[in-house]
Amino acid sequence: MPYADLTKEELLELKKSLKAEYKAMQNRDLKLDMSRGKPSQEQLDISMGLMDVLSSDADLMSENGSDCRNYGVLDGIPEAKELLGDMMEVPADNLIIYGNSSLNVMYDCISRSYTHGVMGSTPWCKLDKVKFLCIVPGYDRHFAITEYFGFENVCIPMLEDGPDMDMVEKLVQSDESVKGIWCVPKYSNPTGNSYSDEVVRRFARLKPAAKDFRIYWDNAYTIHHLYDLDQDHLIEILAECKRAGNPDLVYKFASTSKVTFPGSGIAALATSQNNLEDIKKQLKMQTIGHDKVNQLRHVRYFKDIHGMVEHMKKHADSLRPKFEMVLDTLESELGGLGIASWTKPKGGYFISFDTMDGCAKEVVSKCKKAGVVLTDAGATFPSGKDPHDKNIRIAPSFPPVADLEIAAKLLCLCTKMAAVDKLLGE
Ligand code: PMP
């Protein structure tokens, strides 16, 4: 029965029994962590073959004739561009291969725009006001970068099929201080939703007031499906921008952090030739070249995109039971109670969970006191401030399934306790 239909006496009775359950949980001395979207050890082990493909007698020449051990090849070896290009669904010529972290590349794009501007426009550091659009709930590390540079982060609600595009269009097209938008278009962090064709088309057709406005299209989960058949496929944004007569509008990012190793994968940026030229002016001051041995290692290991797709099925086999365990537990414990809602992703790394308004902080704190660490409530909003205090990001990848069941049960219990208190006006 929905909690809202319970009488005060029933709620008080329920409160008592939930409290006893919570005490029992506390006595179990749990130490579980569902806070960050890290691959589990089992997932890291999937890629250990990477360590075997280059031995001391391996030929380390790239197909362009350069020795991968040496300096040079600023934008990455051709075979790595080919592989990552296929992963990102863009031609190899539109790519730069970087080091291990795409977040680092995003930071560099902001930093370069701040100090030197975008394609000859005024550096952002010289402007009185710079605004960035943040789709919420979203990825805390995106918001942290633009906050760090002193920009105003403006929240845009995430709907089921992508951000509220009416709002995006209005702000981008009317306000010259809006310089960019953070997007996770596929299996978004944290909702797991993907943008519809209509949303992608509207993005590509934006007519920004600022000529140095760029869409930061973070395709972190581009091949990270949970299911073999039921997968999301998006219109490719670079090609769509070109078709719409807006070829320079987007920077597209990806990495193999959650394909191989987050600590030592390879990252890439895909964008138009004009943007690439602009970016390389800075890049050649920053480095003589990234880690080409690692690029070669990835290419020799996967061979081609088919190798990568097969590899991702092993990750899916490891992740799927974890997502399903959490989702099944949420459904069996909270279904029909009217006190919480959650997303049911088909890929990516997260489930987005909403408590009743004003309860998320309390739920996270209660879980912590019983030994389960969740991502801080509010983390999915700029400056960590969720105006409704209801969103919690669940990251099921790291703990073993058995631990997840306990952690999810505790989350449900704490959600019920907070809801009862709320309904009792306490
Ligand atoms: N973007 C998103 C949306 C992410 O969720 C993450 C990792 N949690 C990253 C980027 C980090 O990517 P990288 O490891 O390539 O820096």
Please explain how this structure is put together.
The protein is built from 13 helices and 13 strands. By secondary structure, it is α/β, with parallel strands linked by helices. It folds into two domains: 3-44 and 309-423, Alpha-Beta Complex (Aspartate Aminotransferase, domain 1), CATH 3.90.1150; 61-303, Aspartate Aminotransferase, domain 2, CATH 3.40.640. Helix 4 (102-116) packs parallel to helix 5.
Describe the secondary structure blueprint for this structure:
Blueprint: H1 8-26, E1 32-34, H2 41-46, H3 78-88, E2 95-97, H4 102-116, E3 131-136, H5 140-148, E4 152-159, E5 162-163, H6 165-174, E6 178-183, H7 197-204, E7 214-218, H8 237-243, E8 250-255, E9 267-270, H9 273-286, H10 292-302, H11 305-334, E10 341-342, E11 351-354, H12 360-369, E12 372-374, E13 391-394, H13 401-423
Parallel strand pairs: 1-12, 3-4, 3-6, 6-7, 7-8
Antiparallel strand pairs: 2-9, 4-5, 8-9, 10-11, 11-13
Bound molecules: 4'-deoxy-4'-aminopyridoxal-5'-phosphate.
